[in-house]
Amino acid sequence: MIQQSVLSDETPVLPAVNTGAGARDANGRWRKGYSGMLGLRRGNTPDYKRCRELCRQHSEQSALGMIDLAANSLDDRVRFMANQWVYEQAWGKPREYDPAEDAPPKLDLLRLSPEQREELRRLIELARISRAETAQPAAQAPLSTDSS
Fold this sequence. Notes:
- By secondary structure, this protein is mainly alpha-helical.
- The chain is built from 5 helices and 2 strands.
- The chain has helices at about 45-55, 60-70, 75-90, 100, 115-140; strands at about 5, 10-15.
- It has a two-stranded antiparallel ribbon.
- Helix 2 crosses helix 3.
- The chain is flat.
- The N and C termini lie far apart (about 100 Å).
- About 0% of the residues are buried.
């Protein structure tokens, strides 16, 4: 709990703050081993810990309320937002789509030896011939005509 400083006429003023004056050098820079945070990092304040604990105590009620909104709200926007929240809590947020992940790996032909390049040419030619042979019979198949 933070104690407030009080003037002589009992008027409360802002809480006293540790300025860390001894932690700075003559030029006003922080000396080695000292931080400008002064112990108020996230999670270290009593208010943050209390807020987190309260949220944990009421999380089941909040989740049930969101599920109810997702199912029964008359406003489409509210149903959408509630459903989105429920899905994110259940399955996590979806990853951002990166088209570079779907791109085929780049093949640097200059790194191949002349023998490897020749082998690659031969394999590509075999694949072309094989593809042409499998496509050709289907294209030449006679059409059945019904004479009735």
